[in-house]
Structure formats: C-alpha cells, structure tokens
Write a structure and sequence with these properties.
This protein has helices at residues 43-47, 51-60, 137-153, 169-180, 189-195; strands at 6-12, 16-21, 30-33, 39-42, 62-63, 68-71, 80-81, 87-89, 94-97, 108-109, 120-121, 132-133. The strands form five sheets. Strands 3-9-8 form a three-stranded antiparallel beta sheet, with helices on one face. The chain folds into two domains: 6-36 and 73-199, no CATH class; 39-69, no CATH class. It is α+β, with helices and mostly antiparallel strands and 200 residues long.
C-alpha cells in the first residue's frame, strides 16, 4: 500500500505516469508497504496467460522470488526508477523515504533493488554515473542501499507513520529494535540470499 499523501500524475510521453507527493513526506516515513491485498502470482501461471496480460504483469509486477511475482493492488505499481532515488527498500517488506520528499516531487526507487530478470537502460541521475540496471545490481550496491535505509531509520520514530499498522507481525520486534537503535538493520542482501538460495 502506498502512502496516502501520494497521487498519480502524468510525467512525459516517454515515461507515462508516476507517483507524486501531495504533502511533505519526511525522511524515515514508510512510503510503501506490502500488504495482504497485493496479488501474488506464480511465474507458471503468468506464462499460461495471453501475451497482452503477460505484458502488463511483467511491466508492473516485481519479482518476490524465483516463482512468485507481486502485483500491487493500488497505485504503488507506478513508482518510477531513478539512480538517485528518494525512497529506499528494506528487508522488512516496506520502503522508507530516504530524504524529505517535497510536495509535488515524484517518488522514485532504484529498480536494481528488485532484481528483475532483464537489464534495461536508463538516463543517469544527478550524483550517479550508472546508465543500466542489471539483475544482480544488489551484489554491487547493497551496502549503499543498506546505508540509505540505516540513515532513514534514524527518523522512523520521529515522524508520523500512517502505514506502520501494516508491518507484518514477523518484523514488528525487529523493526522497533532497529528504530530504537538497539539492533542493527538487516541487509537488503538477506532478501536475495533467502529468495535466491543459489546466491548464498
């Protein structure tokens, strides 16, 4: 589920639509969280569908593991990519604002954190020389993403969290400990070691 202070807006003919903040979303705020309304699809099922539906699913779903894809039920599926994103993924099935997101600013994430099967080209962003997303970017950039999440977590208890009630019970104690500074953050790399055992 996306943060309530977001809406879909047209970006450009090339990009299509994206998600924009309608109010200030402070650093450390949960911007998106996986919830029980998200649609879980197995790859075998997707491959059994007609080409038109397969195309839509592969465009808007993200790979949760080797055989499952998650299709967000709300407008979260319209988050666009940036090599200098303002939201960062965590190991706890939610994303955080990596910096203050101003009203009218587009929310973006680094698609490298999703580990998709296909590489793709993207224009470089300010502060980054990257121009291509690869399926194994998590092996190269996980420390950078972990540091972004660690910094964002410092503000977790200082900001309003309208989506906090959706944190899965298996993560609640750990998230509270990380937010309180009593335990270290889990690396996003643990997601890929779990979902892709061949990378362990």
């Amino acid at each position: 589920m996306m943060h309530p202070d977001t809406e879909i807006r047209f970006v450009s003919e090339e990009i299509g639509v994206g998600l924009f903040a309608t109010k200030l979303i402070p650093k450390g705020t949960i911007t998106w969280i996986k919830d029980e309304l998200d649609i879980i699809l197995k790859k075998e099922y997707i491959e059994s569908l007609d080409d038109a539906r397969k195309k839509v699913i592969y465009k808007y779903a993200y790979e949760d593991n080797d055989i499952e894809y998650v299709l967000n039920w709300d407008h979260a599926k319209y988050i666009n990519h940036s090599f200098n994103p303002n939201i960062v993924d965590t190991a706890y099935d939610f994303e955080l604002a990596a910096r203050d997101i101003q009203p009218g600013e587009q929310l973006t994430c680094d698609y490298g954190t999703l580990g998709g099967d296909e590489k793709f080209e993207s224009p470089p962003a300010e502060g980054s020389s990257r121009t291509r997303v690869y399926s194994n970017d998590y092996l190269t950039y996980y420390k950078e993403w972990d540091n972004m999440a660690k910094e964002a977590f410092k503000y977790f208890n200082k900001v309003d969290q309208p989506l906090k009630y959706l944190i899965h019970e298996k993560f609640i104690d750990k998230v509270n400990a990380v937010a309180n500074g009593t335990e270290p953050i889990d690396s996003i790399l643990t997601l890929w070691n779990y979902d892709h055992p061949e990378n362990s």
